[in-house]
C-alpha cells in the first residue's frame, strides 16, 4: 500500500473545519472495504461532508469510484461547495478583492473589517446564495478564531475575530483543484437520512457527524441552528443499521466518551453489533493549551 504522503493530494479542503479528518486519513484508509479495489464499490456517500478531507482524498486516489454523493445540513456550507464546483473563477475574483482590502490593514482595522463582513454575511444569506455569500464564508473561515463555524439560535454566524498575521484567504491553486474534483460530486443540503436514496450494496458511506460532547461543557455551541442532539446520535445508529440492511459498507467516526468517563458505554450500547476501534487524534479546539493533545476517537465499521 502506498503511504498517504506519496498519494495524490492536489486538492485539499478549502475550509478550515473543526474535527477535520486529514490527520485520520491513514486510519480511515486502513478500514476501507476491499470493494474499493475490486470494483464492487462504485459509489461514495458522505452525509456530513464538513471540510471534506476524506472525500478529496478518496476522489483523487480511487478512480474505481464513479459516483460521489455529498450531503450536509449546513446550507451555508453546501452553497459554498456548489459555488466552488460551479463558478470557481468568479469566487476567486471576489475572494481576491476581499484579501486585497483586508491584508494591508492594521489589526484594529482588520477586526472592524471582519465584523463588517460577518454582519453582511448574516444579513445577506437570508435572501441570497451563490458566489458572494460563499466568498464571505471562506473569508470569515480564514480570519475567524480557530476556523470555527458556529451559529446562535437565530442562525447567525457569531465566531469572534481570529487576529492572525498572514491568513491565506484566497488559495487560488487549491480552489481550482477542488473545483475540478467536485465535478464528480452531487452536493445536497439536508439531514443525513436524505442520503439513503444513494445507498445500495455497491456503496461505501463515511459518516462524520458533529461529535457527541465529551462532557457537559465540551460543546462549542451549535454547528447549525438545530444542534445535533443525543437523540440524533441514536437516530444515526439506527441509520447505520439501515445501511447494513441495504448491503452497503460504512465507517463512522465519533468522540470516545471514555476519555472523560470510563463508565460511559453509549457507543457500545448503541452500536453493539458493529466493530468499534479506538485511534489516537489531536484535540485542537480548546482555548486552553493544556486541553489540547492526543485523545482517543472512535472508528465504527460494519
Describe this structure as you would to a colleague.
The protein has 302 residues and is an alpha/beta fold. It folds into two domains: 182 residues, Vaccinia Virus protein VP39 (Rossmann fold, 3-Layer(aba) Sandwich); 94 residues, Adenine-specific Methyltransferase, Domain 2 (Adenine-specific Methyltransferase, domain 2, Orthogonal Bundle), CATH 1.10.1020. Strands 3-2-1-4-5-7-6 form a seven-stranded mixed sheet, with helices on both faces. β4, α9 and β5 form a beta-alpha-beta unit. α4 crosses α7 and α5 crosses α7. The longest helix has 18 residues. It is globular and about 55 Å long. The chain starts with 24 loop residues before the first helix and ends with a strand. About 2% of the residues have low confidence.
Uncertain parts: 285-291
Strand order of the largest sheet: 3-2-1-4-5-7-6
Classified in CATH, the superfamily of the largest domain is Vaccinia Virus protein VP39
Which word captures the global form? Answer: globular
The helical percent reads: 25-40%
Q: What percent of residues are in strands?
A: 5-15%
Q: Can you give the mean pLDDT?
A: 90
Our count of helices gives 10
Look at the structure and give the CATH class of the largest domain.
Alpha Beta
CATH architecture of the largest domain: 3-Layer(aba) Sandwich
Strand-and-helix sequence, N→C?
HHEHEHHHHHEEHEHEE
The oligomerization state is single chain
Number of domains: 2
Largest sheet entry: 7 strands, mixed
Give the total of beta strands. Answer: 7
